[in-house]
Amino acid sequence: MTEIIPGLRQIRPHPMLGGLSGVSTNRMTLVAELRQRLNRQRGPLGLRLTNALTSAIEDDVIAAGEALPPERELAENLGVSRSTLRQCLEQLAEGGLIETRPGAGHFVARRILKPVTRLTGFTDDMVSRGIRPVSKILEKTVMPVPPDTAFRTALPLGTPVFVLVRLRLAGEEILAYERSIVPVTSVGEDYDGTGSLYGRMDQHGGRPKRILQSMRAVEAGAEIADHLKVKPSTAVLMIRRIGYGSHGVAVEDAISWYRGDRYDYVAEING
Ligand code: GLP
Fold first, then answer.
1. Where do the H-state alpha helices sit in the chain?
2. What is the CATH number of the domain that holds 95?
3. pTM for this one?
4. Which end of the chain is more exposed for a tag (fewer CB within 10 A), N or C?
5. Which of 108, 127, 157 is where one domain is finished?
């Protein structure tokens, strides 16, 4: 996957690009590294500490998924008060850089890097990173194509379509809420919505060969926020995709809302 963003991570590859084999960082090395970063900064202690921790996470000095040392130990080793440290950690948690699990501590958040140059589905993206894709089916219905989908895709009115609404998870972590509408002929009448939609489409004449996709940051309404387990009005990534099969006929009309703090779209653009 390194071709996507060559050289972006100079220190070592982001664990999400190479599976789940994040190297555990030695605590002493981490503290020494944080001290150096703290001393390089100017300004109020709280700000320097936030910057030091942020840059250490961004540079993968502490890998995604790894735990930070316990609060008391970290505060003592860095020579800061626990309340200053806590304020910084709260800021990092609000910015989505770390996750605080009550009773367990603070962990560097996992982010999923998604290259925009390949036509992949959710399952492909997860599996290629060594992550277990999980889907919860919230709705599956066969119906005549809804008028707005017919309008977007040029599918003739009356075409039977399969409407699949799913919650998409990386292991146990909710990543997206997604509604896909595909012609029944693309998945077969006996499709029950389980497994990879694109995998199923591969067996029935093919997943999309070309897509038109738009991405937009939106505020999560109450329903989406509830599904994604974020606070209402949190910024989420709304992705619309229309997929076309090999003969140029539309085979998918999809809309997804991804947690903005868990998903990075990465593009390599050649000039
Ligand atoms: C992504 C796309 C969807 C597509 C899905 C297929 O999430 N945004 O448009 O339907 O992948 O994923 P899977 O094959 O895992 O069902």
1. 27-40, 45-58, 71-78, 82-94, 122-127, 147-153, 184-187, 197-203, 222-228
2. 1.10.10.10
3. 0.64
4. C
5. 108
